Q: What sequence folds into this?
């Protein structure tokens, strides 16, 4: 029973850390796609300026002129109209768009998050697999007899 509980706890750890690592992979994918020229081109009217700082940054809010979608953008000022490209994989309440290559490149910081969260996810996943396999019963052999 103890092995089952350990296996379940390791599997939960793998899922939690894996979800964090997967979030980082999505940010990296979106940034790379923008830099490669992918993403729907839109014109956005900025309603709320973005802020940036060492400890935290706040995304600006804008509305696309084409269809009225609300999007989050960085490095923008309220009242301006900017050309942007939408991300390919959306996560979060509002869609994110990039206006410049520098804004997209900032998401490459997630490389560290993928490593820091992905390594424990792999360790926990491997531990859950090993623990779920069980132990052979005493006296039984798994090797074939030799004659």
A:
């Amino acid at each position: 029973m103890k092995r089952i509980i350990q296996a379940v706890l390791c599997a939960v750890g793998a899922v939690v850390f894996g979800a964090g690592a997967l979030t980082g992979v999505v940010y990296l994918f979106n940034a790379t796609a923008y830099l490669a020229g992918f993403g729907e081109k839109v014109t956005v009217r900025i309603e709320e300026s973005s802020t940036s700082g060492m400890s935290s940054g706040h995304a600006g809010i804008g509305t696309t002129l084409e269809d009225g979608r609300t999007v989050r953008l960085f490095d923008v000022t309220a009242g301006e109209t900017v050309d942007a490209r939408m991300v390919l994989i959306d996560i979060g309440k509002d869609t994110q768009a990039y206006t410049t290559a520098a804004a997209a490149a900032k998401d490459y910081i997630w490389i560290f998050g993928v490593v820091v969260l992905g390594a424990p996810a792999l360790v926990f996943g491997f531990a859950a697999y090993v623990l779920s396999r069980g132990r052979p019963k005493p006296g039984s052999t798994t090797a074939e007899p030799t004659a």
